[in-house]
Specification:
Layout (H helix, E strand, L loop, with lengths): L1 H16 L14 E3 L5 E2 L8 E7 L4 H17 L4 E7 L4 H10 L5 E4 L4 H6 L6 E5 L5 E6 L6 H13 L2
GO molecular function: oxidoreductase activity
Protein name: Redoxin domain protein
Organism: Allochromatium vinosum (strain ATCC 17899 / DSM 180 / NBRC 103801 / NCIMB 10441 / D) (Chromatium vinosum)
Length: 164
């Protein structure tokens, strides 16, 4: 049911958002509360950093596979100006918290149960990630996640980190 509702929502608004999140265009600003609700985060507000923006949900099996990899990248590359921002789309916050108990991470988790950010970024499935360069431009969109994707994604992150 949640998958259907989110899919319909994304399809309904996807055409409106297509112009907002294009390759080599500035990443749309999208401030959301963190999952804890104690602060907020905007993935487009990290000037000078390479941002891996990941849209995820607790029911997403590939998301469970990607989280240990993303956490490792954050740990290894954070000192070089790399930041992982993951925005959860679950309607119920507790479902995301339960997921994180099973798949703990140290990177920033935002919560967007209303789906504002995925509409702006034209997200079509879970997970979908956006690589944002140091100038705040979207340089790559990656849909889904397989363990075999990790090496190529890391190489592209390293390439963006080497750009000044």
């Amino acid at each position: 049911m949640k998958i259907t509702a989110l899919t319909l929502c994304l399809l309904a608004f996807g055409s409106m958002a297509t112009q907002a999140a294009e390759l080599n265009a500035p990443a749309p600003g999208c401030r959301v509360q963190t999952l804890t609700g104690q602060s907020s985060v905007d993935p487009a507000a990290f000037p000078g950093k390479v941002v891996y923006l990941d849209f995820w949900a607790s029911w997403c099996i590939p998301c469970a596979k990607s989280f240990p990899v993303l956490d490792q990248w954050q740990s290894e590359l954070g000192g070089r100006g790399f930041e992982v921002i993951a925005i959860n789309l679950d309607e119920e916050r507790q479902e995301a918290l339960d997921f994180l108990q099973q798949h703990p991470v140290r990177f920033t988790i935002g919560a967007d149960p209303a789906g504002k950010c995925p509409r702006l970024y034209a997200v079509r499935g879970m997970p979908t990630s956006y690589l944002i360069d140091r100038q705040g431009r979207i340089r790559e969109v990656h849909e889904g996640f397989k363990t075999s994707d990790a090496a190529g994604l890391r190489a592209r992150i390293e390439s963006l980190l080497s750009e000044r």
